[in-house]
Structures are given as structure tokens and as C-alpha cells.
Amino acid sequence: DGGITQSPKYLFRKEGQNVTLSCEQNLNHDAMYWYRQDPGQGLRLIYYSQIVNDFQKGDIAEGYSVSREKKESFPLTVTSAQKNPTAFYLCASSSPRHSSGNTIYFGEGSWLTVV
Amino acid sequence: AQTVTQSQPEMSVQEAETVTLSCTYDTSESDYYLFWYKQPPSRQMILVIRQEAYKQQNATENRFSVNFQKAAKSFSLKISDSQLGDAAMYFCAYRANFGNEKLTFGTGTRLTIIP
């Protein structure tokens, strides 16, 4: 099935650790995005990538890092510099050349908790 | 910078009745898309409806329709014949129509359906 796969669904991080959230898509989309959602709040953009080997900071990039070595993959690393990482993380993708045009599609999300 | 405002943190409606969720936005662009996403307790982001700014006709998807007022920068969602499965967070979102631009979200409206 075509779609966006995020893993793991649940992740626990100890203080001082870096953790990486995986996002893979088989939709042949050019652009990929990472959003963070805190309880009861909207989505805020962390990083996005419009093409392989290129990415831009979003509104809350501090304490996060990404890479885009393959079109299908856009992993997000939550570093120890991110002081309040407990949140729900959503990966998304889109392509203007796709028949759906300007629609952004989302994965099922990953919960990250600091213990 | 673009902003999206949802002024109703919570709404409730009797089953089978009609409810309207409000959204306003601010942009200097003339070509853009507007979206309503639904987020049920599973946290999956589900596209409900989208509207292209250049189309004067309001979008409709089954029981969901929008009232798009471009001059007023208003984009409300009407849900007719409300069903228990409509209970969710609803997010309004804006996206400029060039390249692979990011989505900017409002803070959401929690909709409760009263049996």
C-alpha cells in the first residue's frame, strides 16, 4: 500500500540521549515535513525538505536535526539540546506533480516521552 | 508571514444537527490553498476538504462544505447531519500555491457530538 510510515510509534528517551524518528514514504513525493504537536495544541513545523540533499528550518528547529539522503526517507533526530522533547511528532509529504496537487499527507505519528 | 486563527477552542452539536467551525487567515499571497484536517483520538491527520483560492465555488465533500470568503479571509467548515464519528479536533490550514510550501495550521477546534 502507498503511504507514509513512521517508526517507532512510541519512544522513550533518557535525559542526555539523542533519538531518531524514522519516516519513509513510497508515494514518490518530492517534499517531506516534520511537525511537532503538543497536547491540546496545533502543529508546528520543525524542518522540511523540498528535494533530496536539501532541507530548511521550520519554526522550531532548535534541538533537532534531519537528513535527506534518499527521496523516500526523512529521519528526524531529537538531540539532547532539545530541552522539552516530549510531544507527538508527525511526518508528512507532498508533491506538486502528484495528481492531488497541493495536498499534504501525514503519517500516523510517533510519541516521544522523556523519562 | 501567514497566520491562521481558529477562535473556537471547543464546539458541541447534537447528533444529526449542523455545526459551523470558523477559521480566518492572513496572507499577502493571491494564489493559495486552504484545508480542513480532522484529527480523531488516534491522532491520524485526515484531510476533510480543500479549497483553491482562485475558485469562487465553495468546495463540498458529502456532508462537509466550506464558506470561503476571500476578501474577508474567512474559511469556515459546515458539517451537516453530524454523526458520532465526526467527534475530533479540526484544524484549518493554509498553503501558498508555489513549489512545495509548508502548511501553516490554526490551533484547532475540538468538536463534541452529543448523542
Helix content of chain A: under 10%
Uncertain stretches of chain A: none
Using the alpha-carbon principal axes, give the shape of chain B. Answer: globular
Bin the strand percentage of chain B: over 45%
Please outline the major beta sheet of chain A. Answer: 7 strands, mixed
What is the SS-derived class of chain A? mainly beta
Overall shape of chain A: it is globular
Overall average pLDDT of chain A: 90
Would you report the number of β strands of chain A?
11
Rg of chain A, Å, rounded: 14 Å
- Helix fraction of chain B by DSSP (H/I, runs of at least 4): under 10%
Largest sheet of chain B: 6 strands, mixed
Structure explained in plain terms:
The complex is a heterodimer of chains A (115) and B (115). The mean pLDDT of chain A is 90. In chain A, strands 2, 4, 5, 6, 9, 10 and 11 form a seven-stranded mixed beta sheet that branches. Chain A is mostly beta strands and 115 residues long. In chain A, a hairpin with a 5-residue loop joins strand 4 and strand 5. Chain B is an all-beta fold. Chain B contains no helices and twelve strands. In chain B, the strands form three sheets. In chain B, strands 2, 5, 6, 10, 11 and 12 form a six-stranded mixed beta sheet that branches. Chain B has a four-stranded antiparallel beta sheet with strand order 3-9-8-7, with no helix packed on it. In chain B, strand 8 and strand 9 form a beta hairpin. Chain B is globular and about 40 Å long. The mean pLDDT of chain B is 93. The chains are: A mainly beta (115), B mainly beta (115). Chains A and B meet through strand 4, strand 5, strand 9 and strand 10 of A and strand 6 and strand 11 of B.
